[in-house]
Amino acid sequence: MATLEDYAELLADLDAPQREKLESVWPEAVRQLSPRGLDNWLKGTAALSHMGRGDHIVRTWIETVPTVARDLGEDIIPDLAQACLGFASRTSGAVIERVLATAPIASRRLSDPDLFRAYLQLLNQLLAQAPRGLRPMLEHLEDLLGVLTLGGLRRWASWGAEAHRTDYEELSRYFGLESAESQAILQRERKGTLFVDIHRRIGMYLRALWGRDFLMRPTAGDFEAREGIRPHIADFFLHLPDAYDDWEGVPGLDLYRAAAAHAAAHVVATTAPLKGDELNALQRACIGLIEDARVEALAIARFPRLRDLWRQFHLPAQDGSMTARFGRIALALLDPDAPTGDETADWVRAAFAGADLGTAQSAFDLGLQLAHRLRNEPYSAWRDGQAAPYRDDNRYIWEFEESVDWEKGMAPDQQVRKYVSVSEMVNEVEVETAGEDAQEIWVAETELFDDDGVSFNEKEGKEPTAPPVPYDEFDYKIQMHRPAWATVQEKRPRLGDPAEIDAILTRNRKLTQRMRHLLDAMQPQGVQRIRKLEDGDEIDLNAATQALIDIRMGLQPDPRVMMRSVRKTRDIAVMALLDLSESTNDPVTGQDQTVLDLTRTATVLLAEAIAKVGDAFALHGFCSDGRHNVFYARYKDFDQPWGEIPKARLAGMEGHLSTRMGAAIRHAGAHLGQVAAAKKLMLVITDGAPSDIDERDPQYLRQDARAAVQEVARTGVIPFCLTLDPRADQYVAQIFGQRNFLVLENVERLPERLPQLYAGLTR
Fold it and tell me: How far is CA 401 from the centre of its chain?
């Protein structure tokens, strides 16, 4: 367990009251925070103490941050510290202290890290617009967030800041809830039911219906408008608005129940997504309308009273808009006895009654027929839709080859590898400037030969890279694998000067000579005869002769007169997987070399050692730039000799980007799976914990790496980690197991320890 003495250097400048407060909070903080969370918390403590804005700020930070981290996750700690440091030049220490003191109120009421970050942005805006109003607002924050969403709080504060920009006295009265107009705006912006007040009840309600838990998150879509955004299902979460007003006399709580039950029905009844690439907007809307009715019909078959819950949100409309038309169809499908006065709605109801509701294909087929009947109706895909407020936007039921970001629009085009005939390749206009950002990569299906009989690949071509490979990724929060979540892209290693590798071998000649006897002992010795056996394959003539002599002399003969010939061979494949993230470019303390330089040196010596023994080995490396860009480089493959090309690739090795370890381990395991060997060793060399730019939760990638290690271990691979991070004990055992890692305290000893480690693991 971590102790305060471990951080003595970081906390050396704290005064006695601050240290006393830290010691009193420390036992509870250790139970609530991970080692990384503790590190960020104490770094924030040191930073605020150096800010010089008062002792009370540091003590409040120490006391409140573990509570905020418990509510919102540890990733919020650096954001809160950065916000407070930014406030220092714009307001007083007393205001910063109130921000920290009220942070647990905001974290509890907002209950979502993204909303809390938006709340910090609101405070930053108020410091620019109405700095005198911030402190009285914070004094009444619990009352405000008790009736307002974050969007409502923002509009309430913006109204007061604009109305009383130059009247400081009235500004203070407004933000202190003392003026009549402040109360009036507050009443106008307040919502009927807040998600934070009822989310536990909704969770228990869904558990009672379906016998399972559903993950839910609030969404703040009403920063500028009170309508908010529609419910939706994404990333295994049910996203519900952070507040609901009463709707046509129906309480907001019932609207929450209806929205959550409908979204849960989608999750339960949807076994596979529908293909939506070749459909137009009207067809997708019609299919979604039928699919909504299908999942509700399946839920009503199990729980009939759900019909009454959903029915109250379907009001008949007789205008000619497409929204009204969809509303009449939805009502007809939900309530078989409801009159619609719409010929199309009656036709859909009759067809739906005879459909097989067990699969979504029935909704797909019926939706296409409905779209055909409505093809001549005016329809806008972005404005018209269903009127029922509880229904989600149906993104969950669709699958598109082109990924769509519903918040930002269409995502950038991904590169497509297209295999074409030689004639297509020849007839296509060549674009000499096309590079890594080309939208299509054309690959000829067969070789193209020149007049001299030599292929163009041999003359001018490059070694082809493998197509992108998707891998599942383990999400520890839901205890499930996210399918095809990370993509590994193999890239050609940059070539360097192989003379640099030879220079490394020359500089370390003494080390290789010291290891010569150890490596000689590891080399296979061919056929060996094991003598003195009672049960063997053949007679040992020398032992048999000695036994006859003993018998003639009246002595007890030795019965071990057999021997067996044993072939001493090594059947081992070794994969060295190198972490090539940006942190490897950091210099080693007290040396001119970087971590990457030492990693290169150690890898070269390891390659020399393995080549001398004769084992099959491969040298691969990885880095990442988000889940879709896990870059993987193969410096030497198993079937490739240790020579000039691998040496040139190692000489050009560079450190970039981040460390998404799980996907790289899975890809390396796939390469090891293609090698026939009795023993397979994967040696992972890294200088830090798994991390990436698109994942803020440190436990997520660690748990995924742990799952990846277990997956490759089940295939017969022995994973082992050599880490250069002195604090790796806090997480590396969790990933690789208690006996499958080594923490190298002195990084400069890496070139010596790596070949020794190989020798010990492959005996």
Answer: 21
CA distances from 126 to 78, 114, 123, 155 (A): 21, 19, 5, 12
Write out 577-638 in H/E/C secondary structure.
Answer: EEECCHHHHCECCCCCCEHHHHHHHHHHHHHHHHHHHCCEEEEEEEEECCCCCEEEEEEECC
Question: Which of 474, 494, 481, 466 is CA-nearest to residue 670?
Answer: 466
Distance from CA of residue 406 to its chain's centroid? 19
pLDDT number for residue 198: 85
* Cα 763 from Cα 761, distance rounded (Å): 6
Separation in Å, CA 74 to CA 108, 112, 533, 729: 14, 12, 65, 20
The yes-or-no verdict on residue 412 having pLDDT over 70 is: no
Q: What burial class does residue 714 get, using C-beta atoms within 10 Å of its C-beta: 0-12 exposed, 13-18 middle, 19+ buried?
A: exposed
Radius of gyration of the chain (CA): 34
Gap between the Cα atoms of 75 and 728, Å rounded: 19
Pairing assessment for the beta strands 572-579 and 616-624 based on DSSP bridges? parallel
Q: What is the DSSP annotation of 739-750?
A: TSEEE-S-GGGH
Q: Is 426 helix (H, G, I), strand (E, B) or coil?
A: helix
> In angstroms, rounded to a whole number, what is the distance separating the alpha carbons of residues 294 and 201?
26
- Asked whether 99 and 122 are in contact (CB, 8 A), the reply is no
Q: What is the pTM of this model?
A: 0.46
Q: Residue 656: CA atoms inside 13 Å, Cβ hemisphere, count?
A: 16
pLDDT score at 411:
38
pLDDT score for 29: 86
Residue 598 buriedness (CB in 10 A; 0-12 / 13-18 / 19+)? buried
Do the beta carbons of residue 115 and residue 220 sit within 8 Å?
A: yes
CA dihedral 360, 361, 366, 369 (to 10 degrees): 140
C-alpha span between 706 and 735 (Å, rounded): 4
